[in-house]
Amino acid sequence: MGQGLSCAVDPEHGLFSAVQYGEMETVKAILERDSSLLHKRTAYDRQSLLHIASANGQIEILSMLLDQSLNPDLLNRKRLTPLMLAAMHGKISCVKKLLDAGANILKFDDHNGRTCLHYAAYYGHSHCLQAILSSAQSSPVAASWGYARFVNIRDGRGATPLHLAARQKRPDCVHILLDNGALVCASTGGYGYPGSTPLHLAARGGSLDCVRELLSWGADRLQRDSSGRIPYAVAIKHMHGACAALLNPSSAEPLVWPSPLKFISELNQDAKVLLERALVEANREREKIILKGTAFSPSPSHSDSGTCDDISEAGDNELCSICFEQVCTIEIQECGHQMCAHCTLSLCCHNKPNPSLASIIPPVCPFCRGPIAHLAVAKFKNSDDPDHTVNDISSSKLRKSRSSRNLSEGSSSFKGLPSAVGTLGKMNGRGSGGITADNGLMDKP
After folding, report:
1. Straight-line distance from the first to the last Cα atom of the chain, in angstroms, rounded to the nearest whole number
2. Which of 18, 31, 93, 363 is the most interior residue, by most CB within 10 Å?
3. What is the number of other CB atoms lying within 10 angstroms of the CB of residue 144?
4. Are 168 and 205 spatial neighbours (Cβ–Cβ below 8 Å)?
5. What's this model's pTM, rounded to 2 decimal places?
6. How many CB atoms lie within 10 A of CB 316?
7. pLDDT 10s per residue in the chain (445 long)?
8. How far apart are CA 73 and CA 317, in angstroms?
9. Could you tell me if residue 350 is left (phi over 0), alpha (psi between -120 and 50 degrees) or otherwise beta?
């Protein structure tokens, strides 16, 4: 990109060098002698003092410059703003400071037509990405332009931030974007990868973590690019065998995060963490079966470390009445019935959501058949502290008591259950309506 900002030192003042290296006293002394230098620019790239401070993470100097009423949206030669450079270089304190100063998150550069959101996603700075998205929710963008539209904003050649994150192997950014409404099946149209979805691009790059994340948010394994290739064919072409195994249409479908359900979108953070962990564990079990006997060993899931087979130490809370394997960690409101996170997730995920449908039929409580209003973290029934929840149990006590479970296959854990929950295990079926657009993507920003 040529944005390293190894700026040429002004032969007379050395102002740019002082800003770059955080020499606050030198900067103040120079500006006191000649305040007009506040608007000084580098000769070629037209970098302002704000650009240099932002790219180098010099938060104190940046704050001082902004206090001088400098415009936070100054443009350099490529029409990059200080906020774009801060996001590009992962300078989170500068990103937050510029956002607080009113920097415009909807500015597009002149090189690729990208915003600060694109740059944060491309370079994998998830903390900067989250800060920009949080600002967008409370800024005029949400009211005028629309928050969902901003999350799926396309650059000059049609790439969304999700496309860039998937192509560059940034699973943390992929997760944040999907959790904030990024379209998992949006396709590109140029950049050498016409019609590619984020799943195609993750397969091209061989990012197993990105493939897992996209599949767990409903990415369609059968959606084709402009050349008629499904993601599986792209992974095979680029010799990414493990990715190809997961993307093979003949392999079992993964569980998909049930984001269309209202009570899922309203989860508090603790309950969300429990369910997300259950989703990862279930899909890793599926992955082990798919990769078993192949040359590719599944990477160990977080749940594999410290797995505890003895769940009797997890307080006096009852075992889940559906699987009889795990402690009840999730409570259904308003009825108060409790289940483990795995069974709760299976209840919500027995059908793969289809984005082409306006709404889906929400599941009901498997015990009383009442509607599910909210899900919350279950509380211990025999705890001295009435507010003591299962979230306080050591994570090893909440993990699976048996090493072989395959929720994604759908039958082994739920066969023989009462009819009220007999359908929990039927999780097969595909259908993630493709959302296409005439857009594209390139390798470099």
Report:
1. 7
2. 18
3. 8
4. yes
5. 0.79
6. 10
7. 445 554 444 444 589 999 999 999 999 999 999 888 999 999 889 999 999 999 999 999 999 999 998 999 999 999 999 999 999 999 999 999 999 999 999 999 988 899 999 999 999 999 999 999 999 998 788 778 899 999 999 998 888 999 999 999 999 999 999 999 999 999 986 666 788 999 999 999 999 999 999 999 999 999 999 899 999 999 999 999 999 999 999 998 888 998 888 888 889 899 999 999 999 998 898 888 888 866 666 555 443 333 333 333 344 557 898 888 889 999 998 899 999 998 988 888 755 555 555 556 788 899 989 989 899 998 865 545 555 554 444 344 444 333 333 333 333 333 333 333 333 443 333 333 332 333 333 344 4
8. 55
9. alpha
In sequence order, the β-bridge partners of residue 315 are none
CA distance 318 to 133: 40
* In contact, 161 and 207? CB cutoff 8 Å: no
What is the C-alpha to C-alpha distance for residues 51 and 58, in angstroms, rounded to an integer?
Answer: 10
> What residues pair up with 371 in beta bridges, in sequence order?
364
The amino acid sitting at 218 is G
Cβ partners under 8 Å of residue 138, min gap 6: none
Residues 283 and 349: beta-carbon distance below 8 Å: no
In whole angstroms, what is the distance from residue 172 CA to residue 119 CA?
A: 14
| DSSP string of 29-48, one letter each residue | HHHHH-GGGGG---TTT---
Burial code (b: 16+ CB inside 10 Å, e: under 16) for 24-36 equals eebbeebbeeeee
Among positive and negative, which fits the CA dihedral 164, 166, 170, 172? positive
* C-alpha to C-alpha distance for 221 and 230, rounded to whole angstroms: 7
Q: Spell out where 334-435 has E strands.
A: 338-339, 374-377
Q: Is the dihedral of CA 282, 283, 286, 288 positive or negative?
A: negative
